[in-house]
C-alpha cells in the first residue's frame, strides 16, 4: 500500500530535509506554526514497524510530498 500526501506550501530547504524524521525537530519556518515536531517521526516509526518505509520530496517554495509504503499480505 502506498499513500502519498502533498502540499503546495513553503517546502523544506534541502539542508533541513535530513532532520524531518527527528523527534521534536522543527524547521525554521515551521516554528511560526503550532505543532510539536512529532508528526513525521511517528509516521516513520509506524511505517517501519509494519515493514515499510517513508520518503520526503521537497523544494523550498514549491511544497512537500511525503510517501508512505507498507507491504500488504
Characterization of the model:
This protein has one helix spanning 39-49; strands spanning 2-6, 53-59, 63-69. The protein starts with a strand and ends with a strand. It contains one helix and three strands, in the order βαββ. The protein is an alpha+beta fold and 73 residues long. A hairpin with a 3-residue loop joins strand 2 (53-59) and strand 3 (63-69). Helices cover 15% and strands 26% of the residues.
Q: Concise description?
A:
The chain is α+β, with helices and mostly antiparallel strands. It has 1 helix and 3 strands; from the N terminus they run E-H-E-E.
Considering the chains and any ligands shown, give keywords for the structure.
alpha+beta, 73 residues
Summarize the topology.
Blueprint: E1 2-6, H1 39-49, E2 53-59, E3 63-69
Antiparallel strand pairs: 1-3, 2-3
Which sheet architecture does the biggest sheet show? 3 strands, antiparallel
Q: Which bin fits the share of residues in helices?
A: 10-25%
Largest beta sheet: strand ordering: 1-3-2
**Mass-distribution shape:** globular
Let me know the number of strands: 3
Task: Tell me the series of helices and strands, N- to C-terminal.
Answer: EHEE
Report the average pLDDT across residues. 86
Unreliable stretches covering 5 or more consecutive residues: none
Q: Give the radius of gyration.
A: 13 Å
Measured by DSSP, the beta-strand proportion falls in 25-35%
Number of helical elements: 1
The secondary-structure class comes to: alpha+beta
What is the distance, rounded to the nearest whole angstrom, between the alpha carbons of the first and last residues?
A: 10 Å
